[in-house]
Specification:
The chain has 19 helices and no strands. It has about 400 residues and is mostly helical.
Length: about 400
């Protein structure tokens, strides 16, 4: 069974990544809404919606099943993209953002749990990071391709760009029906509140999981937001049709990083990888944003070479700390924090960009994310203590 699900995940993730408008979303949202603040708020609403639905969908996945959850998430994503494509006003974007947030919530804990449980059925849990890297690689390969195509199509028509994006998500919905449900794990006899309480207690009492979770939350809240917003800065140094080239380089780097993550993880401790990735990412941002030139988008694309292996390292470390019957719930708790942080900071970032400039707003965001580097240093230090 695992071969079929892994193969389907590779196709499924490719189609998720083949959303042609994604690299230019902030530009599209800002044009429809009329400002960077409102445009960025669409991202925030997506994440706020995801935060609202995170726990119910995670518990649903653990109690009801992985396949049905991924199907529901795919339906929500297709409808969200349709509303974006219609895009008659800011409120159509808001409606789409709410549905995309629901989709993210269905996917966030469930999809990793589906892959992990699929491998566990064949006693392949130890290869989780290897398969996660390979199936995630396809999403970024698709983002690389769609980034170039999207930039060219947007040069002629944003409307065509949005509706072409809908088509790929419909194909993804069809694929979601083909997955096979893993064998059920430990049956849950407790009520929802007890189930949730047990998951929260593990975060509180497990120091390693707590550090990993906090670092992951900050990384997503600030790092992912900066990534989504950076096109607003790129357009000040590059023409719109060329922005897709930066996306191509970034996502090719991320795709390669995911694909070869298993080989890198076998050579270097995961905590070391996470710390180095965090330091390098901050350094390149300060250089590219502090001294903006035509080379800035290229400089900001280089951290992608560490993105995939960093994500796999973080995910694999957390999966080993999760309990099997609460895997999706605990992952959703982690995603909940990231979504709330993203929602709050998107409003702040948009306001800073309108007040100063996109470049200065991103520099402030990078300064705030230094706290994330400190958490990874604590993980690195603790690992060294255990090893010595």
């Amino acid at each position: 069974m695992y071969r079929k699900n892994v193969r389907l995940f590779t196709i499924f993730n490719f189609l998720i990544g083949f959303s042609l408008f994604a690299p230019l979303a902030i530009i599209y949202f800002s044009r429809v809404s009329g400002s960077y603040a409102l445009g960025a708020s669409v991202f925030g609403i997506t994440m706020l919606s995801s935060a609202v639905f995170e726990l119910p969908t995670g518990i649903w996945s653990d109690r009801v099943g992985r396949k049905g959850t991924i199907i529901l998430g795919s339906w929500a994503r297709v409808l969200a993209f349709v509303l974006y494509a219609i895009g008659l006003s800011y409120w159509w974007l808001v409606a789409g953002a709410i549905l995309e947030g629901l989709s993210r919530a269905f996917y966030s804990g469930n999809n990793d749990a589906l892959l992990y449980d699929t491998l566990a059925d064949d006693h392949l849990e130890g290869k989780y990071h290897e398969y996660l890297g390979k199936v995630s690689s396809s999403e970024h390969l698709a983002l690389a391709i769609s980034g170039v195509l999207g930039g060219v199509i947007a040069h002629f028509s944003f409307s065509y760009l949005m509706w072409f994006s809908v088509i790929s998500q419909v194909l993804m919905l069809v694929i979601s029906y083909q997955f096979r449900e893993p064998r059920p794990r430990l049956k849950i006899d407790t009520n929802l509140y007890v189930h949730l309480k047990e998951a929260i207690k593990l975060f509180i009492h497990n120091n390693k999981l707590r550090l990993l979770s906090m670092a992951s939350i900050i990384s997503f809240s600030l790092g992912e937001l900066a990534f989504q917003f950076r096109s607003a800065f790129f357009i000040s140094v590059w023409p719109i049709w060329a922005i897709g080239m930066s996306s191509l380089l970034t996502d090719l780097g991320a795709s390669a990083s995911f694909f070869f993550s298993d080989k890198i993880i076998k050579r270097f401790p995961k905590q070391n990888i996470l710390l180095f990735r965090s330091i390098y990412g901050k350094l390149t941002n300060f250089i590219a944003l502090g001294f903006p030139t035509v080379a800035s988008p290229l400089i900001m694309s280089t951290p992608s070479l560490l993105y995939g292996v960093g994500e796999v390292s973080s995910n694999d470390l957390m999966q080993h700390e999760f309990t099997s019957h609460q895997r999706a719930t605990m992952s959703s708790l982690n995603s909940l924090g990231g979504s709330l942080g993203f929602a709050i900071m998107s409003v702040v970032l948009g306001g800073l960009a309108d007040l100063f400039s996109p470049a200065k707003a991103l520099i402030i965001l990078t300064l705030l994310s230094l706290s994330n580097t400190y958490l990874y240093w604590l993980l690195f230090r603790n690992d060294r203590k255990i090893s010595s």
